């Protein structure tokens, strides 16, 4: 809980600084990259949370991985290292993205499908989500062949599951109850 509050504080500070310097878009791109990289790399995550690895080594690793990052992003990394909070980097990046989306009144809709969405279908989903929520929406398409067909749409806390696997599971439950 305290770690989450600290991540929010750092994210708010970076967003405020980035907005003042008119680089909030570039920093948001960096934060998305940081979030995805840390989530995808168990090794990087292990280095960040390991107290035995020296701060200088952590900084060297992060500098080489995110060498094209904005100055505000590199300053965040330096601050987290100086305060011995570098393990929060992934959380801070995720919170920054959430705060940035709130500031711009946008949201991200995650669409999980068995195959990649076509541009036409993506436009239809964007239009429907905007109609339902009234917010500008970006789509993140996640391909998961295990759902067999259909899609799972997740916007914020709402989820609509129209996957074939879900339909089959519902049928299975109906047959076992009767």
UniProtKB/TrEMBL annotation:
It is found in: Cell membrane; Membrane. It comes from the Bacteria. SUPFAM superfamilies: N-terminal domain of the delta subunit of the F1F0-ATP synthase. It is a peripheral membrane protein. InterPro entries: ATP_synth_OSCP/delta_N_sf (IPR026015), ATPase_OSCP/dsu (IPR000711). It holds the Pfam family OSCP. Keywords: ATP synthesis, Cell membrane, CF(1), Hydrogen ion transport, Ion transport, Membrane, Transport. F(1)F(0) ATP synthase produces ATP from ADP in the presence of a proton or sodium gradient. F-type ATPases consist of two structural domains, F(1) containing the extramembraneous catalytic core and F(0) containing the membrane proton channel, linked together by a central stalk and a peripheral stalk. During catalysis, ATP synthesis in the catalytic domain of F(1) is coupled via a rotary mechanism of the central stalk subunits to proton translocation. This protein is part of the stalk that links CF(0) to CF(1). It either transmits conformational changes from CF(0) to CF(1) or is implicated in proton conduction. Belongs to the ATPase delta chain family. This is ATP synthase subunit delta. It comes from Winogradskyella aquimaris. The gene is atpH.
């Amino acid at each position: 809980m305290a770690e989450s509050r600290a991540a929010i504080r750092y994210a708010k500070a970076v967003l405020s600084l980035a907005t003042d310097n008119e680089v909030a878009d570039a920093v948001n791109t960096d934060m998305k990259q940081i979030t995805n990289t840390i989530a995808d790399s168990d090794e990087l995550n292990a280095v960040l949370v390991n107290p035995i690895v020296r701060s200088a080594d952590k900084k060297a690793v992060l500098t080489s991985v995110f060498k094209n990052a904005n100055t505000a992003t590199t300053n965040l990394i330096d601050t987290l290292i100086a305060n011995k909070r570098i393990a929060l980097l992934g959380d801070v990046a995720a919170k920054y993205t959430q705060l940035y989306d709130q500031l711009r009144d946008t949201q991200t809709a995650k669409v999980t499908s068995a195959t990649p969405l076509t541009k036409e279908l993506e436009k239809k989903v964007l239009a429907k989500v905007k109609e339902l929520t009234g917010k500008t929406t970006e789509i993140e398409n996640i391909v998961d062949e295990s759902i067999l067909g259909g899609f799972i749409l997740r916007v914020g806390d709402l989820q609509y599951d129209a996957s074939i696997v879900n339909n089959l599971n519902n049928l299975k439950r109906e047959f076992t109850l009767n």
